[in-house]
Specification:
Elements: H1 12-26, H2 33-69, H3 90-103, H4 114-129, H5 137-146, H6 182-188, H7 198-213, H8 221-230, H9 259-278
């Protein structure tokens, strides 16, 4: 009886396959032996090519998976299934989302439902992405009542023709060096109580630029959170971090790795080769 003691995709399958089936060749008569030897060699070659393909595919998938999550604590909003982000209809969609959240008490708890999450994302994504005149004032205010119960998705603010451009950054690396205390400086200037001073304006606009234009691993965690902490009080200092209207990048939405599916195909292939040889 044919038995397989182990299966780890790679060159080991070839030697194992040959090790198991070679004794069968020795027991064959002289007429059958050349034909069976040819089948064995063909099967081994096909397994080798399948193994190489699987290994490279698995490595590529693992690399992509690691790349997607190394510095990404929040899922991009445009990657959330079922979430449509459209600023022209945000007034209606965000109000309907808020109405749902307020009508269902579980939505204001950590035990919120999938439907609660879906409606929260509608409200949060449009609030963070669209010009403020596209989102009802009630939504802008009430959003902060729900934030503690949800994990925000990540989205960049759309260009707003009514705003001026934010001052350019010298370098994203400064967020971890010369500007690493910027959030503390906002606190020292009581910007969350009164953001009207030039000190608050300068620092908040710089925080916006870091948040919207730099990679997440280039800035401290408190800076990313600080943008949302001060956005309500510092709303009058909003500025454009984008130079023009842009389309949300959906190429960052990678599918889940399919290693299991690939492995299953390989195992089926190996079984098929064995059956072919034993015919």
């Amino acid at each position: 009886m044919l038995s397989v003691r182990r299966l780890s995709v790679g060159s080991g399958e070839i030697s194992l396959f040959v090790e198991i089936l070679t004794p069968r060749i020795s027991s064959l008569n002289q007429n059958d032996r050349p034909r069976k030897q040819s089948k064995l060699l063909l099967s081994a070659a096909l397994i080798a090519s399948s193994s190489a393909f699987f290994s490279s595919t698995r490595a590529e998938e693992d690399h992509d998976h690691d790349h997607d999550h190394d510095h990404d604590d929040h899922e991009p909003c445009q990657c959330i299934a079922g979430l449509s982000i459209e600023c022209t209809t945000a007034t209606t969609t965000t109000q309907a989302a808020l109405d749902y959240l307020e009508e269902h008490s579980e939505c204001k708890t950590e035990a919120n439902s999938a439907e609660c999450k879906s409606n929260y994302y509608v409200m949060q994504a449009h609030h963070d992405h669209c010009p403020h005149d596209k989102v009802p004032h009630e939504v802008e205010h009430e959003l902060h009542e729900f934030e503690a119960f949800y994990e925000d998705c990540d989205i960049k603010r759309q260009y707003d023709s009514d705003l001026s451009s934010c001052p350019a950054l010298a370098s994203c690396s400064n967020a971890l060096t010369t500007d690493k205390e910027i959030v503390t400086e906002m606190e020292d200037n009581t910007c969350n109580t009164d953001c009207s001073s030039n000190a608050c304006k300068t620092r908040y606009q710089k925080m916006l630029m870091y948040h919207d234009t730099c990679a997440e691993d280039q800035m401290p965690t408190n800076l990313e959170q600080g943008v949302h902490t001060y956005e309500e009080k510092c709303e009058s200092h909003l500025c454009n971090t984008a130079s023009a209207v842009f389309t949300l990048d959906t190429s960052v939405c990678s599918p889940a790795p399919s290693v299991i599916a690939s492995s299953s195909k390989f195992v089926l292939g190996l079984a098929g080769f064995a059956a072919y040889f034993l015919m």
